[in-house]
Amino acid sequence: MKLKIYVSLSILMATLSFAQEKKAEKPKFNQELATSLGADQYGMKAYTIVMLTTGSTKIEDKAKMGEVMKGHMANIGKLADEGKIVVAGPFLEKNKENYRGMFIFNTKSKEEAEQWVKTDPAVQAGVFSYEIFPWYGSAALPLYLKHHGEISKENP
């Protein structure tokens, strides 16, 4: 009986060790994919981050604020569908900088990112203001968007 347990444990450990080795292997480089994503030799590229901050306008009317936020969310979806925005989301906690949310735009141009953020109804209404920063990240970042729809039951 002890021999059976020993053999079973040995096989299990060998299997886990092999699985770990397979997982650690580096994926094969895909030049076509790298080129299509605009990747440099490190698999990275330039983006622009826009940090949404608390704006100067306070809208007390809940219905009006609801419409502004509905337009804000629709605009995010439109920009994502156009391939302009690759990440968007709110911050979950208040912070001393008054950052409310963040966009990562698929451009290295701060001017282009500013044009895109100005299409946001909440920015237009003054509910949000913004700060713009150049950023360097994985060129594969936009690929997650195609899977987001598969994991979300509802849109906010």
TrEMBL record:
<dbReference type="InterPro" id="IPR011008">
    <property type="entry name" value="Dimeric_a/b-barrel"/>
</dbReference>
<dbReference type="InterPro" id="IPR005545">
    <property type="entry name" value="YCII"/>
</dbReference>
<dbReference type="Pfam" id="PF03795">
    <property type="entry name" value="YCII"/>
</dbReference>
<feature type="domain" description="YCII-related">
    <location>
        <begin position="63"/>
        <end position="135"/>
    </location>
</feature>
<keyword id="KW-0732">Signal</keyword>
<comment type="similarity">
    <text>Belongs to the YciI family.</text>
</comment>
<protein>
    <recommendedName>
        <fullName>YCII-related domain-containing protein</fullName>
    </recommendedName>
</protein>
<feature type="signal peptide">
    <location>
        <begin position="1"/>
        <end position="19"/>
    </location>
</feature>
